[in-house]
Design a protein that fits this description.
The model has no long low-confidence stretch (mean pLDDT 77). The longest helix has 39 residues. Helices cover 42% and strands 17% of the residues. The chain has 2 domains: 115 residues, Yope Regulator, Chain: A (2-Layer Sandwich), CATH 3.30.1460; 155 residues, Yope Regulator, Chain: A (2-Layer Sandwich). It contains 12 helices and 10 strands. This is Arp2/3 complex 34 kDa subunit. InterPro entries: ARPC2, ARPC2/4. One of its GO terms (cellular component) is cell projection. Component of the Arp2/3 complex.
């Protein structure tokens, strides 16, 4: 995840090493960031307090590339970093856009020295943010009033770009979102929809209006198809003059430059949270299954409740019950056979005997 920071960590480390060195150091170091930003630092032992910093960085838009170097307003912002320490060398070294002369002897030996070196290490951020600031400040420019709404393609990272569209009384920033995995697309889509719902509430009515759409907005018609082919849709922010007044300008610029990084950080954190919850649920389920398996191996004998006769009856098996039933029936038969009723046999012969009938028709055998 590429997070755009104000100061370069590698550059800051080298400058602090030069500043804190007890003996003179000779350094000729090259460092790269984001795959496209290059720093070249030169320091000689003969002049330990003097160092030269050259920087090569891609600009946000090709229109800012001038034959004479960086725009004037960008150079003025670079001079304003540390006027007593930083000096711009013109022309810059071959292959670089900017070369600075740093005088460490003018940095006070106090706690503020670290802050001054950190501000010097943020020179690449000053170059990029100055270009975006110039666009946002000129919200009510002449070409906007004439209806010129041509999108400006901005890129500060090889794989991340966004568009700035100047419109009457506002500027629209459109971010095409791309993700490698389908799960990231699902998480980000839910996040964008929630961002729209929160932005439309009364609590955030002063914030830039946010919209999300799976298809490109009408303002991007005619742009190259490779810039509009996304799987995460398009997020748009409407920036008015109220959002670029005073100190709000700096905050708005850095929020736009770090929007891709913020979304990727949110997706990564959400995916990690879901994976931790699933792992925890799985561990709890395995623990329950292991407990059940232990109880099956060592069953607990339960005492049967109820009367003594019922417990005794439940202890008999089926063959025993059948045998007891058979013996009971035979016993009843023996008891019944012993009963004798006087004169019952004579009564049965006289009244319960079936009468005999003789046929009235007689047949003779024919010979």
């Amino acid at each position: 995840m590429a997070c755009f920071q104000r100061e370069s960590p590698a550059l800051k480390e080298i400058l602090l090493r030069l500043y804190r060195a007890e003996k003179p150091l000779e350094i000729d170091s090259h460092s790269h960031e984001f795959g496209s930003v290059e720093y070249h630092i030169q320091a000689s032992a003969s002049h330990p307090q003097i160092a030269y910093l050259s920087i090569s960085t891609p600009l946000l838009h090709q229109e800012f590339v001038l034959s004479t170097g960086l725009p004037r307003y960008t150079l003025e912002m670079v001079r304003g970093i540390c006027p007593d320490v930083v000096e711009i060398i013109e022309p810059p070294n071959e292959g670089y856009q900017l070369t600075l002369r740093l005088d460490f002897s003018r940095i006070p030996r106090k706690k503020d020295a670290g802050k001054m070196i950190a501000s010097i290490a943020s020179v690449q951020g000053v170059i990029l943010s100055s270009q975006l600031k110039d666009m946002l400040v000129n919200v009510n420019s002449l070409e906007v009033s004439q209806g010129m709404f041509r999108p400006i393609r901005l890129i500060y990272h090889p794989r991340e770009l966004f568009f700035v569209i100047r419109q009457p009384e506002k500027i629209t920033a459109v971010f095409p979102m791309r993700f490698k995995e389908d799960t990231d697309v699902i998480i980000s889509t839910a996040f964008f929809q929630e961002l729209m719902d929160v932005g439309s509430s009364k609590a955030f009515e002063k914030a830039p209006r946010c919209t999300w759409s799976p298809i490109p907005p009408p303002e991007l018609r005619g742009e190259p198809i490779e810039d509009l082919s996304t799987n995460g849709g398009f997020v748009s922010f409407e920036i008015t003059s109220r959002h670029v007044e005073g100190k709000r300008l700096e905050k708005t610029v850095w929020n736009l430059l770090n929007f891709h990084a913020f979304v990727k950080y949110h997706v990564k954190s959400t995916r990690g949270f879901i994976q931790r919850r699933m792992r925890q649920r799985l561990e709890n389920l395995v623990e329950v299954l292991n407990k059940i398996g232990t109880e099956d191996e060592h069953p607990i004998k339960k005492k049967s409740r109820g009367s003594k006769a019922l417990r005794k009856l439940l202890n008999f098996s089926r063959p025993k019950l059948l045998k007891r039933r058979y013996n009971f029936i035979n016993k009843i038969k023996r008891i019944r056979s012993r009963i004798r009723i006087q004169w019952f046999s004579r009564f049965r012969r006289k009244w319960l005997s079936f009468p005999r009938f003789s046929s009235l028709t007689r047949y003779e055998r024919l010979e």
